[in-house]
Amino acid sequence: MPTPLPISAYVVLGLLRRHDGATPYELDQRIRQSIGYFWVFPRSQLYAEADRLVRRGLIAERQENDGRRRRTLSLTAEGHDELHRWLATPTGAVMEIHDEGLLRLFFQDPGDAGAATSMTRLAQEQIEAHEGRLAEYDELVASGRLRPGSPQRATLEVGLRLQRMMIGFWREVAAEPPHEL
Amino acid sequence: MPTPLPISAYVVLGLLRRHDGATPYELDQRIRQSIGYFWVFPRSQLYAEADRLVRRGLIAERQENDGRRRRTLSLTAEGHDELHRWLATPTGAVMEIHDEGLLRLFFQDPGDAGAATSMTRLAQEQIEAHEGRLAEYDELVASGRLRPGSPQRATLEVGLRLQRMMIGFWREVAAEPPHEL
DNA sequence: GTTCAGATGTTCCAATCTGTAATATTGAGG
DNA sequence: CCTCAATATTACAGATTGGAACATCTGAAC
């Protein structure tokens, strides 16, 4: 490989292994209800990523030349190999988080007028947001689409624990907002 | 405000409230051992963000015209107001996660030769990475720089719980790697 | 069978962001 | 005074972002 592929490339390769012949659009939908939970990824990026992978010969593309002009993608042998190589490669990468709610909490100054109110409201919003997420995950589990003991079920387990943890945290904040500077 | 400010703008404003007269470089250092844990933010972005905020009149800048040419930043009254407004504004934003380790786990196929080995190794790497993070956080707590009951201590608490949760998760994976498809 | 809303699907784009390298200064230690 | 590490800013090519624009298909209701 000349330059190493971005992670999003592996997301495409990984999904294609299971869903050969999918369109970028379809991949986007799958991402949004699985991987999207721990790897955000805007739709437009998928089309760009597909182009790049085609250029590198890791996937093959067939585009309808009328109608919806669907682009159906499939792994090449090289793509399959590259995916395997990646899956077997060590990574020192650490989880990265973006949480606007925590940021707002961080910057609160308990000395400000209304800070306690702001924090309580913030906590309530965040509880709702995380409960919403948790409900989605629970639904996914209940749907039975994930085999117990599968890697997909395992990653979802992280999602469940994470959401529960965050709900617990924000409940504590709501009950007793930070008061010290 | 014409267009809403990006979150990173509020990071700058929020830090400046506590550290008036800081340089972008100094802000970067502070970010890397506090907010950076839940809001990633490359250094170069800070300089660009400072420019933007100056243009909008939310911060004032004084640059030394010799030596290190330090740019010292401080909040204007408008900047202060904007920060306050933001802190008091509701947000529906949900936490976003980027975790390459989980991604690799997600894409494992227990049918592949060596999958169990890959997963065990992955789990071990991740345990180390998360333990490293946890150690940093513990150190921060031990340093006594964060008052108990402060918003900053509260957000760090999330970091602690998160890392412990992830360590627990990966230990389970190491002990019994997913085996089902 | 027509119509319409909503889902499917791709393309385009300006603005922004990213990572990294280049440049220069200062301070500490030998 | 020399050197190394830390401090500090600038520059910038390439990638990414989010959204809007565009077009097609499906199915339900009438």
Automatic annotation (TrEMBL), chains A, B:
Record-given protein name: Virulence activator alpha C-term
Database matches in Pfam families: PadR (PF03551), Vir_act_alpha_C (PF10400)
Residue ranges of domain Transcription regulator PadR C-terminal in the record: 99-175
Domain Transcription regulator PadR N-terminal span(s) in chain numbering: 12-84
